[in-house]
Sequence to fold (229 residues):
Amino acid sequence: EAQVTQNPRYLITVTGKKLTVTCSQNMNHEYMSWYRQDPGLGLRQIYYSMNVEVTDKGDVPEGYKVSRKEKRNFPLILESPSPNQTSLYFCASSLSTRQASYEQYFGPGTRLTVT
Amino acid sequence: DAKTTQPPSMDCAEGRAANLPCNHSTISGNEYVYWYRQIHSQGPQYIIHGLKNNETNEMASLIITEDRKSSTLILPHATLRDTAVYYCIVRVVYSGGGADGLTFGKGTHLIIQP
Fold:
C-alpha cells in the first residue's frame, strides 16, 4: 500500500531534549516536506526536499533541521525543543514539484508536546 | 498563489449531494484549483484538482466556472465519514523552485447529518 509513515505518532518531551521525528514514503517520490499545524494558523511548511541531498527552508524553519540521505526518508530534527514547538506535525510527499498537478500525500501526523 | 474564500461551515444530510463552494477571483491562467480534506487531525487527503475543465473521479466532481473565478466541489452521496474540513487551494501549474508548499486556509467544515 502506497503510504507515508511517521514515527512516533505522539510524543511528550521536555524543553531542550533533542528529538527526531521520522518520515518514510514507499512511493519513490522525489519531493518531501514537513508541515506544522496550529489552531487558527493552518498548515505551515517547515522544510522541504526536492530530492536526495537537496533541502530548503519553508515558511517556519527556525528551530528545526532536516536531512535527506535516502529518497524514502526525511527525518525532522528538533535539536533543542521549546514549548512553542508544541504542535501537530505532518510529513508529505509527491512525485515531483516540477509539475504542480502531482498531488501531495500526507502522513498520519505526529502530535508533539514540549513542556 | 491566489487567495481563496470558503464558507466556514456547512451541513448536509447523509445520502444527499454536498456542494462546497470556493471563490478564487484573483486566479491566474497558470494556476490549478485543488481540493483536499482533513478528517479530524488526520493528515490531509487529496480529493481532486482541475485547471479549466470540470473533473470527476471516484471521490468527487469539480465544477469550475468558465471565468475560473469560482469552483464547486461536489460529493455526490455524502456519508457520515465525509465529515471533515475541506480546503480549496490554488497553485501554479509549474513550480520553478521555492517553498512549493500547499497553502491551506481555514477551509469549510462540512458536517454530514444522519
Observations:
- The longest strand of chain B covers residues 84-92.
- The beta strands of chain B are 9-13, 18-23, 31-38, 45-50, 55-56, 61-64, 70-75, 84-92, 108-113.
- Chain B has no helices and nine strands.
